[in-house]
Design a protein that fits this description.
The protein has 14 helices and 13 strands. The protein has about 375 residues and is of the alpha/beta class. The chain is globular, with a radius of gyration of 22 Å. The protein starts with 11 loop residues before the first strand and ends with a helix.
Length: about 375
């Protein structure tokens, strides 16, 4: 691990990821932020896991350095910190379970960097996930108590070590305070995630089809059982509309069987995981998401910038940062299938409303362009300038 020769007048940033490069949301956000900030900083990325596919580095700016752990995580990070004279250490995965080694490296660095911890989920995600478990009620309550204690301990620990603790939404602040019992978290702030698709030059509305898309992992968290139940109803009202499911996961086989059992083969297709989703968003009119909980959900902003209207359950607070209900997207009361079907039916029926919302969605997506989010990160980093 040999850091490149750095520009002495520029500050040095090191992003830390559990795995990089990769195909997940954290990896995509890190890539876009690293590229954006590389114009004013010396930027590097450190991955706890080794490189798997070198082709995934192609979108990373050539000026951004990349390292990964080869032997000892602590010693490898420490070497990069010292050799690279790192000023800012941006901890991109607050849930990584080897934080003691990472924090020990920071503590032992010749020059202690500013530690910025970023939480890429709703702070109570473990508690919500427990509700989805299939164990009996007594065991679930016992597990919930344990999760509450663990969640409080871990958040307080990471907050204590951080110089700044970044959430994805202002609306997550009350949740953070509730689970940590920190009444006045002065080190807490929030910065939204950027869009992680290429910005389209123009949108050809004539290319829009009677097409809905779902984009995400096929896991219980995404509410895929609700998605199929909704589509089973709405497809009877609009048999000329199609649903394309982008993604893969543990529930794909179950979903495919559901489609067969309910004779939905003519309207539902499984596209698998897609590296480039832009082609689908250009053609699709509506993004149909049914998540139980999320941190940010990148697919909302991604689809909106292509004039694809997001429809989702109001099941997590950051959704209100992205979607203005009834104007540039639809927020349905959490898990009310009947309302979801009715709202989807209305959009599919009213082409004028559909077009107005598509235009509004494009405008709202611009708020989350990487240049705007990059400016917020620069403002944060500048607060530590001496």
């Amino acid at each position: 691990i040999i850091p490149k020769q750095i520009e002495p007048l520029m500050k040095n940033i090191l992003f830390f990821c559990t795995r990089y490069p990769g195909l997940g949301g954290i990896e995509k956000v890190t890539e876009y932020l690293a590229n954006e900030l590389s114009s004013g900083y010396n930027v590097s990325i450190f991955s706890a896991s080794p490189l798997v596919d070198e082709s995934l580095l192609q979108k990373l700016n050539s000026s951004v350095d990349y390292f990964y752990s080869r032997t000892s995580l602590k010693e490898d990070i420490l070497h990069v910190l010292d050799e690279g004279r790192i000023d800012f250490f941006i901890y991109q995965d607050s849930y990584y379970n080897r934080e003691n080694e990472v924090l020990a490296a920071i503590k032992n660095a010749k020059k202690k960097p500013v530690l910025i911890v970023v939480e890429h989920n709703t702070p109570d995600c473990y508690l919500i996930s427990n509700k989805l478990s299939s164990c009996n009620l007594v065991l679930k309550r016992i597990k919930r108590l344990g999760i509450m204690v663990y969640t409080m301990y871990r958040h307080r620990k990471m907050y204590r070590m951080a110089d700044k603790y970044v959430l994805l939404s202002k609306r997550f602040v009350p949740i953070f305070k509730k689970i940590t019992f920190i009444r006045n978290p002065k080190k807490l702030m929030w910065i939204n995630n950027p869009t992680t698709c290429d910005i389209p030059i123009e949108i050809d509305f004539k290319s829009k089809e009677k097409l809905c898309v779902f984009s995400g992992r096929l896991v219980p968290q995404k509410g895929i059982h609700l998605l199929l139940e909704i589509w089973n109803r709405v497809s009877k009202l609009h048999p000329d509309w199609k649903l394309k499911i982008l993604g893969d996961g543990e529930k794909r086989e179950w979903m495919e069987q559901y489609v067969v059992n309910n004779n939905l083969q003519n309207t539902v297709t499984f596209e698998g995981f897609q590296v480039n989703v832009e082609g689908y968003y250009k053609r699709a009119s509506i993004l149909t998401m049914t998540s139980i909980y999320e941190g940010w959900l990148l697919s909302l902003c991604e689809s909106m910038q292509y004039g694809c209207i997001p429809m989702l359950f109001a099941s997590y607070q950051a959704a209100y940062d992205i979607v203005d209900n009834g104007y540039n997207g639809i927020l349905v009361d959490a898990f009310d299938i009947e309302k979801y079907v009715n709202q989807l039916d209305t959009l599919m029926t009213d082409s004028n409303k559909l077009r107005k919302m598509q235009i509004a969605a494009i405008d709202k997506a611009s708020h989350f362009y990487i240049q705007n989010i990059g400016d917020k990160w620069r403002k944060l980093l500048n607060t530590f300038e001496s």
